[in-house]
């Protein structure tokens, strides 16, 4: 991570060919006061006293123009971008609570080339996330995450940090590196996101600060608090200067999202006007309520020697985040009728020219309660719908401890040592309980707008009591999922820098870094099982069961739930009112008691811990233990000079990285043991019989990877305010840890049996498996590689905190992570067999390219109050060529999601071709305000949705946020912040055929949030 210390800024100021405006010099002076002591591994060294004095002489006679608030933060960020030695964008937030959005993700999305997901997970587009998830930079998800220039992560199946878990109140800034230099830690093909916390030497003064707000979420109609406090002070002593900083935050947010969804379109057996038609699997209606709690602590202790030759910085960062949500969902739950959905009696379906359903009232040949023992009883009686109560709780903790010591014995040499330890845990308990009832569903698709949904009793008789009567509901099924992950990393970095007095090269840096990360991920399957179903043989356990009826012991473990004002009204109409019966929320919340609760049903569902072979809640193939050791060495030369009166600077270097992975796992061999004399397994060849002895054993896979990563960055100043920039780097992205799983379950496929004789006299003469197959992760998966090229023109007009920049980028990608097959040789019982292993593999090449345009300026030249106006704008265009989608799911035991993907030639997941940010700003006489609009074009959310099994696209959408503050004094500021001011409806669509035709899938509505904020600094 690069940060601009006194020597860096001095080098800028002292160049005879580079002139500074008054504002630029004043801002550099500000940075000298606040920025120089930020200590990061492999980057900074203390400034020479002579250079400090020279800088002071250059700026001491200039008029200092004070900038505060929005201007100050934008000016700092602009300086970091302008004087950076590679391509970067930044957000500055010096004051506590000054990050311009309510979460780190919402702030990052304002940067050029950045977009975020609005769902809890890309492969689960049925659960909206009010604060977003995941960072996409220039169309790619392979980003590195850092705290203060050091590696950090959330202990899940991925590799980086879940930014939504980080308290924004702790952040002093965010830096996004889009290319690399040799001294940067490898791993960010898309970019490196560095979260910066404050340090005591940022200021020479004592600082006491606080930020408090109350946030009202208008859909859930709840108000929640956030509070943060900061103490920072600097002390002089006979032994040097000391600094101490403590920063604490505590935040709670409640939110609600309603989802109106149309089911997967299925071809129907019944023809309409002699033509086949496609009708949706009725509807899916969801009401989800979130409780997000975040606590954070950042502490820093700094010491600088009396002679300024030694600077030591110790830091501790803790992020403790939980997200709990409950969901009520209504959805079709009977696969037997999906091709026999028919219009209700006396009605017809409206069908478009392509044979697709547009509107109508949907029922099926489903029968009635009296025939519940039959799979499909006669008669037209609606379709079975699940009434789902789901509770999910995720808790993540990251503890990050770092110590950095820098030593400069003289003007030529500087040394840095950095030590870091990270510990992370992440746990999830997810439990659903499903009741069921029958219903007739009316849908009007409204030409792509939010559909109108009508629910009525299965006889379509207008029974107003059907959905409120427990007589019509039974206990259907349950499903549980658990993850329990922990990981830690120890890293040591040693750097040295030598400064030359003259010549093209101004300095040379060398450094080495050692890191070892150990992580255990435990991810269970989603464990669905029936409680009572007619087809299961135990009959239905009805909600109102009494006496000796099945389910009578459950009593009233159901509750009425109102869907009034669903999706803010005008969407759902139900005969008798929008109230339904669901399993009680308390059942889902008390997961550990659920198995005993439903014991009387003799269910097909048993909890995860009750599965044969389970170790606690997990089977052996659901546990992945990985140790990753990283050794890196770099050398980097920094240069500067003039050519024909134009000043240039840059760096050239190479980084060598060696990565070793040790992954513990398990292997099971085929069960070819014969049970009866006439089983074909008795006639297998000796080698196959020996290989398939049902044995199992632990195994350890060891892989290594090494690579030279060259880089080159050049900056050419065309004049005082314009420059050209070029960057090249070889970069890698490491695979998600979940894709390195080392569990292999081998089975024989395509058993070919030969017989002699005919009829009753037929006898087996031989049998042989044609191949062996397995599904697994891939502990031998190599990193993805890229050649990154960037070219930029940058024009700065700092008197108005203004700039106009254009960047062109091209990434030549190889070794993509994809779902594929690999032949491996396995030995067992003295014989070896070739096994086709399906899962993660490396393959294919592709490219991503595009352009970024960014503009910002305050219009100080306007008269009077108008001079407080300002504008930010950025636009990014991205396209890919030949880039394959991975088709992988790292949180599944076999890491494979690609099997059964409906269509080929899909665009790259997460890539929007067009991304736009527009921010209108105002700052004058103590007032500051901003309106920020973010928009992105359509993009592929996932190649395979977990429910429809189809590709899901997020349609183009935008969101408007805003804030208004007034500074009553130098110490106190009050204001309002608003999120989702225009009540954006987030829409998705599903691709239904190979030609790319799409129909609407989801329409999500969530809260508008207004926060009353008070901030103080003393």
Describe the structure.
This protein is mainly beta and 1018 residues long. It has a domain at 332-391 and 431-482 and 526-620. It contains eight helices and 46 strands. The strands form five sheets. It has a 35-stranded mixed β-sheet that branches. Strands 1-6-7-4-5 form a five-stranded mixed β-sheet. A two-stranded antiparallel ribbon has the order 2-3. A hairpin with a 4-residue loop joins strand 34 (784-797) and strand 35. The two termini are 30 Å apart.
The helix count comes to: 8
Query: Structural class given helices, strands, pairing?
Result: mainly beta
The unreliable regions are 1-66, 373-377, 893-898
Number of strands: 46
Kindly report how far apart the N and C termini lie.
30 Å
- Give Rg in angstroms: 31 Å
Shape assignment: globular
In percent, how helical is the residue content? under 10%
Strand content: over 45%
- Average the pLDDT over all residues and give the rounded result: 88
Mind summarizing the main beta sheet?
A: 35 strands, mixed
Layout of secondary structure:
Layout: H1 6-14, H2 22-34, H3 49-59, H4 69-82, E1 88-92, H5 104-108, E2 114-119, E3 128-137, E4 143-147, E5 150-151, E6 171-177, E7 191-197, E8 207-217, E9 222-237, E10 240-262, E11 265-267, E12 278-280, E13 283-304, E14 310-332, E15 341-343, E16 350-351, E17 357-364, E18 383-407, E19 413-444, E20 452-456, E21 474-499, E22 505-522, E23 527-530, E24 541-542, E25 558-562, E26 572-574, E27 579-583, H6 585-589, H7 594-597, E28 623-643, E29 646-668, H8 686-691, E30 696-717, E31 722-733, E32 743-756, E33 763-776, E34 784-797, E35 802-828, E36 831-858, E37 869-881, E38 914-924, E39 927-936, E40 939-942, E41 952-954, E42 957-967, E43 972-979, E44 986-991, E45 998-1006, E46 1009-1017
Parallel strand pairs: 4-7, 20-26, 29-32, 33-36
Antiparallel strand pairs: 1-6, 2-3, 4-5, 6-7, 8-9, 8-46, 9-10, 10-13, 10-45, 11-12, 13-14, 14-18, 15-17, 16-17, 17-19, 18-19, 19-20, 19-21, 21-22, 21-23, 21-24, 22-28, 25-27, 28-29, 29-30, 30-31, 31-34, 32-33, 34-35, 35-36, 36-37, 37-38, 38-39, 39-42, 40-41, 41-44, 42-43, 43-46, 44-45
